[in-house]
Design a protein that fits this description.
alpha+beta, rod-shaped, two-stranded antiparallel ribbon, about 80 residues, single chain, binds zinc ion
Amino acid sequence: MSNKNDDTNEFYGMTQKEMQDQERSMVCPDCEGKGKVFLTCMACNGSGEGMADGTRCRSCGGGGREQVVCETCEGEGNIIEY
Ligand SMILES: [Zn+2]
Ligand SMILES: [Zn+2]
């Protein structure tokens, strides 16, 4: 083992280990790399309507969906395969 820093790829500014990690990483299939996923709002069951007629669901703001951090990639947007 030499102590030279030749393992670092200056061009990419990454170490070989980081490059290997990047090769193994893939876009999270659950959130498509966004790091967040939409779930059907539990409060309104996706309708976006509030309890009373003509009101919007407070939980989702009327969108019927809630945006939550993707559990698969923990919000990273990509996962690393081992
Ligand atoms: Zn809702
Ligand atoms: Zn994800």
